[in-house]
Structure formats: C-alpha cells, structure tokens
Design a protein that fits this description.
Blueprint lengths: L7 H14 L12 H8 L3 H13 L3 E4 L3 E4 L4 E5 L5 H6 L6 E11 L2 H7 L6 E11 L2 E11 L6 H5 L5 H9 L4 E10 L3 H7 L7 E9 L5 E10 L3 E5 L3
Parallel strand pairs: 3-10
Antiparallel strand pairs: 1-2, 4-5, 5-6, 6-9, 7-8, 8-9
Helix pairs in contact: 1-3, 2-3
Length: about 240
C-alpha cells in the first residue's frame, strides 16, 4: 500500500515518527500542542489524537495529562537477579537515576508484611517509600518494609541513602540478596497513578521481592510498581 493510500492519521504518525528519527524532535522533547499540530497537518483534533495514540501505543511518545506529549527513549531494562542492583542497571544504560523520598515512617506489620518478613503480626516495621525518575519523569514507585528490631536508627539512615544495598552494606555490614521475586501486572491506585504520572486505567509491572542478608535472615519485603510504558524487566540467572 502506498503512503497516500494510508489513513490520514497513519500518515501523520509516520511523519512525526520520521521527524523523531531525524532528530527534529529528540528524546525528552515535548511535541507541539494539539492545536499547533492540527494546524500544521490541516486536520481536526480527533484525527491528530488518533495519530498520537498510535505513537503512544508503540512506545514512541508518552502523553502526560496537563503537560503534553513527549518523545520517549527506548524502554529501560532492569535485570531481576540474585543481587539487587537497580541503580547499576540504569547507569549501565546511560540513565542517571534520580530519587524522591516520599516518606520514611514506622508502621505495624499487617499479615502480608509479617509473613513476608517472617516476623510477628503487628510488629513494628520501617516503611521506606520513594519514586525513581529519569529525565524528570517517574520510572517506578518503591515501598520497602524492614523489620525495625534488626536495624537500629534505620529511619534516619533511609533519609541519607537512595540505594538500599549501599545503606545495608555501609551502616550494618549487611549483604542484600534477592531470595524470591513475584512478578505480575495490575492497575495502580488513583494515588499511585498520580505519583507515577500515568492513567489509572493503564497497568503497572508489579514486583514483590523478599531479600535476605548473608546469613539468610529476611531483611526486606519490597513492593515496586514499574511504569510499563517506560520499563521492561527480565530474569537474570546469576
């Protein structure tokens, strides 16, 4: 089928895709507004939105409500292996991780947290919640639960570290080894979708991990939601 025989929205998507490949728009750039693009291509907004949706679906752009449409990089890959090395995975792909700590607090362990950490129900745990970003856009939302009894002064240390592995190694001479990981997909809560700047109708990649130290003690139950449009996970056999 010739280019002219394609539906108009596909022709527009092809032209925008070519502009991106030719570096007219580069990774992280915001595309012109709907009004500007509609005028440029001589189409109504409905047709323009179909073209943008096609590019969004294939992972070429991301649409952030209230902010605009941005050119995306290739998905960032994170290995799921014996060692917990999120930051190193990003840096190996020339992505400089950024972190925003949302909260560090003490809570009582519910049944799921207690079972995962192998502690008594209602025992005190430290919740360390943070969001990772690249190019100012969220990649993941992580919640880590630690048994307070094993780690004195942990809340204060959490404020000083973005790497849990580095925190354990430096402050407690403790290794950080992945014992198990459960992967699934689910819809985020409204609040989590807002933090990740994504629609609540789009699924996240959910990773639930149980991590141990060099003696086999459970030291962390981690629950991380990855944006499925920006991240991909693969299992690595160490």
């Amino acid at each position: 089928m010739s280019q002219d025989a394609l539906p108009i929205y596909q022709q527009i998507a092809d032209k925008l895709r070519q502009n991106i490949q030719d570096a007219v728009f580069q990774v992280g750039d915001r595309l012109p507004t709907e009004t500007e693009l509609s005028k440029q291509f001589g189409v109504n907004r409905h047709t323009l939105r179909r073209a943008i949706e096609l590019l969004r679906h294939e992972g070429t752009v991301r649409v952030e409500q209230g902010r605009g449409t941005f050119v995306m990089a290739a998905p960032i890959t994170v290995a799921i292996g014996k060692r917990v090395r999120f930051n190193e995975s990003l840096k190996a792909q020339s992505v400089e991780p950024q972190w925003q700590i949302l909260r560090v607090t003490q809570i009582s362990a519910d049944t799921r947290i207690a079972q995962s950490l192998e502690i008594a129900s209602a025992a005190t745990v430290v919740l360390y919640e943070r969001v990772s970003l690249a190019d100012q856009a969220p990649l993941s939302l992580a919640r880590s639960y630690f048994p307070e009894a094993l780690f004195p002064d942990l809340p204060a240390h959490c404020q000083a570290y973005h790497s849990v592995s580095a925190l354990f190694q430096t402050e407690y001479d403790c290794d950080h080894i992945r014992r198990s990981t459960r992967l699934s997909a689910r819809l985020p809560s409204t609040q989590d979708a807002r933090i990740l700047r994504m629609p609540a109708t789009k699924p996240v990649l959910l990773s639930e991990s149980i991590n141990v130290d060099q003696r086999g003690r459970v030291i962390e139950y981690g629950v991380t939601q990855f944006r499925g449009d920006r991240m991909e996970l693969f299992i690595k056999n160490d």
